[in-house]
Hints:
Strand content: 5-15%
CATH topology: Rossmann fold
Order of helices and strands: HEHEHEHEHEHH
CATH architecture: 3-Layer(aba) Sandwich
Amino acid sequence: MEQSRLTAPTPESDAFWLATRILSVPRMPTQALAVFPGLGDDTRVSYAVNRWHGGTYEHFLVSGCGQGERTARRFTLETLQRNPFGLIRTTNVHTQVEAANTLEQCRWVAEKLSGLGLHSVGIVAPPFHLPRVFLTLLKQVREICGHWVIMVPDPVPAPPCAISPENNLTATGLAPAEFERIAVYQAKGDVATSEELDRYLRWLYQSCL
């Protein structure tokens, strides 16, 4: 018997649909590119540097890293110019250097977007983390900028079996906690809800595409 296409939503199906909506936002050019480092995962920043060098972005935003992490780096301009990152194009590169968590990273990015008068940003983060980054930044942008901006997900291409240097877990192992963190931080008001995401996507598709 064929499985019905109509069934009651569950927390798991809600999480699936939340991530699907975010990761299917159409790719389009943006004024800025923002990367969210963490867990000693240098591939995030290396990938973003390559995107910055090969793109037409006006500004490159490198958010800070939690210095409490064992593998933390201080992402200064000098750090970015050294291996393994190899930053060459240094004009309009902005670095936060330190941030305690994703919320602080997103608050800084939103403040930079507001201060620079930017209306679009690409978001570089690993796929397992990108939905929470997107929803956290969406909330901060709305509060700090006072309006929505175009936000385009740019997931770091990496196998789900890649090991995080910070905790020796794979992306597959880290994903379940992201599901729980989104729910907890939504309740705190730090992360956009599904309804807020729907309102944003309605604006995005009607106004920008």
